[in-house]
């Protein structure tokens, strides 16, 4: 599933391409939304909240989309060949200069802009909120502290605690804190967790590369994420891949058994 910084960057790029422009074509290829023709609408901008996107229009309506595991928005020039097949397109927003195509989008809705909170009001503070303040940090830390018995890795993925962390950052946050993803929340400093999570997302918010090591070269961007069987960059111990969570919440998780203290699953 895309991380919050991926969704944030998509919103930023779409705003730059579409904001202030009228649509000459606006199709929603979803059974519940197919009757809506968005042609003629003025695009005000695109706003991200955690992993949710809202494309806002001048008529007081918003298009809500969520990437889930495989969704994405692509930007093209008119006439440019799409990089994914047309049957995967769920939304096509066209201006005179640009074409925004939403592929394999999920949870689509077309609603009044003033009602956006109905879809995201349950979320914790958005780690990439441009108006983030001390109250947001305190709220996220308090919500995290309120789940003392939950495994830290699972708590980090709970968007109701704080919005924006996905499996990549979950894995890397645990490594940088020096604790295993299975350590209970009560054994970590919630303020430090929130600070680190926001720092990592902010560092990568304006670029497609997601680096937690400070390196941007391919293969050097992460400490342990997707490095199962390879040596730990810090100590040389073999990085272990295990599964954390159950059913639809199960995720591949990577950790160094030497650098990260706390409970580990059986080898």
Descriptive account of the structure:
With 267 residues, the protein is of the alpha+beta class. It has two domains: 4-120, MutM-like, N-terminal (N-terminal domain of MutM-like DNA repair proteins), CATH 3.20.190.10; 134-255, Orthogonal Bundle (Helicase, Ruva Protein, domain 3), CATH 1.10.8. The protein contains six helices and ten strands, in the order H-E-E-E-E-E-E-E-E-H-H-H-H-H-E-E. The protein has a four-stranded antiparallel beta sheet with strand order 1-6-7-5, with helices on one face. Helix 3 (134-145) crosses helix 6 (190-204) and helix 5 (167-177) crosses helix 6. The protein is globular. The two termini are 26 Å apart. The mean pLDDT is 96.
Number of helices: 6
Beta-strand percentage range: 15-25%
- The overall number of domains is 2
Low-confidence stretches: none
Helicity range of the residues?
10-25%
Give the end-to-end Cα distance, rounded to a whole number of Å: 26 Å
- CATH A-level architecture of the largest domain: Orthogonal Bundle
- Order of strands, main sheet, comes to 1-6-7-5
Overall form: globular
Quaternary structure state of the chains depicted: single chain
Tell me the CATH topology of the largest domain.
Helicase, Ruva Protein, domain 3
SSE topology string: HEEEEEEEEHHHHHEE
């Amino acid at each position: 599933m895309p991380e919050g910084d991926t969704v944030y960057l998509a919103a930023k790029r779409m705003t730059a391409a579409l904001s202030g422009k009228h649509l000459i074509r606006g199709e929603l290829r979803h059974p519940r939304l197919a009757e809506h023709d968005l042609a003629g609408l003025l695009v005000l901008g695109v706003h991200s909240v955690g992993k949710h996107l809202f494309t806002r229009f001048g008529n007081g309506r918003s298009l809500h989309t969520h990437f889930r595991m495989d969704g994405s928005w692509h930007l093209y020039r008119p006439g440019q060949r799409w990089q994914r097949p047309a049957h995967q397109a769920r939304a096509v927003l066209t201006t005179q200069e640009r074409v925004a195509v939403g592929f394999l989008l999920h949870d689509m809705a077309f609603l009044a802009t003033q009602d956006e909170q109905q879809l995201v009001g349950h979320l914790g503070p958005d780690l990439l909120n441009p108006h983030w303040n001390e109250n947001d940090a305190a709220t996220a830390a308090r919500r995290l502290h309120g789940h003392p018995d939950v495994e830290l890795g699972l708590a980090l993925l709970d968007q109701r605690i704080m919005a924006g962390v996905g499996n990549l950052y979950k894995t890397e946050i645990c490594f940088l804190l020096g604790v295993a993803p299975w350590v209970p929340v009560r054994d970590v400093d919630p303020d430090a967790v929130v600070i680190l999570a926001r720092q990592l997302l902010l560092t990568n918010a304006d670029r497609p590369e997601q680096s937690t090591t400070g390196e941007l070269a391919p293969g050097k961007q992460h400490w342990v994420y997707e490095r199962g069987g390879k040596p730990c960059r810090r100590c040389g111990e073999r990085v272990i891949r295990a599964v954390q969570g159950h059913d639809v919440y199960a995720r591949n998780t990577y950790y160094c058994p030497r650098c990260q203290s706390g409970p580990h699953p059986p080898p």
